[in-house]
Amino acid sequence: MDRFHRVCKACLSENLSPDKTKTVCNNDGCTIQGQLQPRTFRLKCKLCGTLCHNSPRGDLYYRNHLAKEHTELGYERVVEQPRKRKASPETAIPDTTDPRTSLKFALHKIETLKTRLHQKERMEADSKRWHAEAVEDLRQQALSAEIRHQQELEELRRQMQAEHRRLHEKMEELRRQHHRALERQQQEIEALRRDKEVVERQLEAELERADQAFDERLGMLGGTP
Questions:
Q1: From the record, what ranges are coiled-coil (predicted)?
Q2: 116, 90 in Cβ contact below 8 A?
Q3: Which of 12, 29, 79, 137 could form an SS bridge with 59, CB 3.0 to 4.6 Å?
Q4: For residue 57, is it within any domain?
Q5: 207 lies in a domain?
């Protein structure tokens, strides 16, 4: 459980309690039950300078350092300052009075700048390499797409040529069939014409024979033709 640091305004002792709603001091040595306030200072021994968080009792007389030789001396307040972040070697201000310190700092600064320059150059080289790789990748993709497109066009051209040949062969076959049908029809018509001529000659011959027979019969009967 978190401990909430607050200090009594009367006895200056810390009250460590998880209850943040308490407003009065709960130390036995504080006879007036002083009001609590957030801790903004610490106590330091006037003799040895040791900082102290807690006192053995709330009474100001007993807020001396615990060491026996310090019992006659009291404490003084020390206002707490916010902690400062330790400066890094890169941002630390060198002691210009010492030439060795200045030279060391300058060399460190140069090495730092060299490192940053190398990092920047490496990042630029990596960026250029990545850009070139991306451009080459896009070029290869475009080339592959063009080759695939040309192959598809060639395949379509071959299919069209094959279909054209098939249709041409079919048309030639139909033309030959039509020509043969016309020839058969002409032959049938010629055969029918010859048959007609034969029948007509046969009929004429029959009529001639019938006329001759009729004339002969009339002659036999004594008549005149």
A1: 103-216
A2: no
A3: 29
A4: yes
A5: no
- Residue 208 domain-assigned? no
Number of domains in the chain: 1
Q: 37 pairs with which residues across the strands? A: 7
Which among 15, 17, 11, 76 has a CA at the least distance from the CA of 49? 76
Q: Return the closest-CA partner of residue 15 out of 82, 191, 51, 3.
A: 3
Question: Which DSSP helix (H) or strand (E) runs through 183?
Answer: helix 99-220
Please tell me the distance from the alpha carbon of residue 24 to that of residue 15, in angstroms, as a whole number. Answer: 9
Question: Structure tokens of 183?
Answer: 């020839």
- Residue-wise pLDDT tens digits, 67-80: 444 444 454 544 44
Instruction: State pTM to two decimals.
Output: 0.34
Q: Is residue 87 part of a domain?
A: no
- The pair of structure tokens assigned to 7 is 């200090």
| Sheet with 14-17, edge to edge strand ranges | 14-17, 4-8, 36-38
CB atoms within 10 A of CB 211: 10
Full residue range of the structural domain in which residue 32 is found: 4-79
